[in-house]
Structures are given as structure tokens and as C-alpha cells.
Specification:
Layout (H helix, E strand, L loop, with lengths): L7 E6 L12 H17 L4 E6 L1 H4 L4 H4 L4 E5 L9 H4 L6 E7 L1 H14 L3 E10 L3 H14 L2 E3 L1 H9 L7 H9 L1
Parallel strand pairs: 1-2, 1-4, 2-3, 4-5, 5-6
Length: 177
């Protein structure tokens, strides 16, 4: 099953100002989320954000918030419990997740979306946890559960479908940056 841009929504989970400094390789995680957000915008893929208890751990990084069409504020680790499902665009069954923490909010949200019959993919180079082991075990569990594990570049070319796509050169510049 190929992931089509016109059937996708990008969901950026909890890339918050007070959480990110404790995330392993947080700069790389944030940069990959920004990269895929730029590509999503070029291909007109909707982008949703989530924020876990923003009164405690702050809002999403400014660079991330700027891309989000809507941000769901949540208290549950599974964003579906606090309105994510209602915020999704209809007829877009491919849900692509990036963000933090892989083993908590990303995993719980992905498992619930999968349970609700969405096609769920995790950007393995755009998710993070405080500890590498937690991230790695969560990715293993998600893959075993039927979530697709993909990379940012893999998704970009899948969304493009062809070098004849009208935004191919712009997307290629983002990929190379």
C-alpha cells in the first residue's frame, strides 16, 4: 500500500518547548518534523499538532506550531481521547505521526488510531524519547502491531509519486537541506 498525499494527514505530537530539551537528539527530531511539514505544505497535506498539558510543559516549538492547521490540547496520553479524531480531515485515512515521546503519547495515539481502522505510519527519524531504549522498544511494538515504520525521505518520495510532480524540485530542495 502506497501512501498518497491526497489521502494523508500529518500529525505532530507534543513537540513542546519544555519537553524537547530532555529528548535524546531532540534537534534531529525537530528538524525532521520541520522538513516533513514543509513537504506536506507543498503537497497540500493537512498538518495537525497536539500539546500535552501545555500549562505544565509549554506549547509546541514555534517552528512546529507555525505549520499546524489546528492543535489539539490534551491531558490523555492518547490524543484520540481528547478530540484528535474530530479534528481529522474526512477521507484521509493515511495518518503519519512524528513527535514525542515515542513510547508514551506517540505509541498510545498510534495504537488507538490503528484500532479505529486508520492506516497509521510512524516517521522513525522524526520521533523521540528521553531514553533510546524506550524509543526503540516502542517502535518494535508499533511495527509488530501493524503500524508502518517509515522515514521522512521515504514518505516524501511516496507522496510525490513521480519526478514529474509539479513541486518535485521544491521538495527535493527540502530533502537535501
Amino acid at each position: 500500500m502506497k501512501i498518497q498525499a491526497n489521502r494523508s494527514t500529518l500529525i505532530l505530537i507534543d513537540l513542546q518547548s519544555r519537553l524537547m530539551p530532555s529528548i535524546y537528539e531532540s534537534d534531529k527530531v525537530a528538524q525532521q518534523c520541520i522538513k516533513i511539514s514543509k513537504i506536506a505544505q507543498l503537497l497540500q497535506v493537512p498538518i495537525l499538532g497536539t500539546e500535552q498539558s501545555p500549562q505544565s510543559i509549554g506549547h509546541n516549538l514555534k517552528e512546529i506550531a507555525a505549520f499546524c492547521d489546528k492543535t489539539v490540547t490534551k491531558e490523555h496520553f492518547d490524543a484520540c481521547q481528547d478530540g484528535l479524531i474530530d479534528a481529522l480531515c474526512k477521507n484521509r485515512e493515511h495518518l503519519i505521526l512524528g513527535g514525542c515521546e515515542t513510547h508514551v503519547c506517540v505509541m498510545q495515539t498510534a495504537l488507538e488510531l490503528l484500532r479505529q481502522n486508520f492506516k497509521v505510519s510512524i516517521l522513525v527519524d522524526a520521533v523521540g524519547s528521553r531514553r533510546v531504549l524506550d524509543r526503540d522498544i516502542a517502535l518494535h511494538r508499533l511495527g509488530s502491531a501493524g503500524v508502518h515504520l517509515i522515514t521522512t525521505e521515504m514518505l516524501a518520495f511516496e507522496w510525490l509519486e513521480s519526478a514529474k510532480n509539479g513541486v518535485f524540485k521544491e521538495v527535493l530542495e527540502v530533502i537535501k537541506s
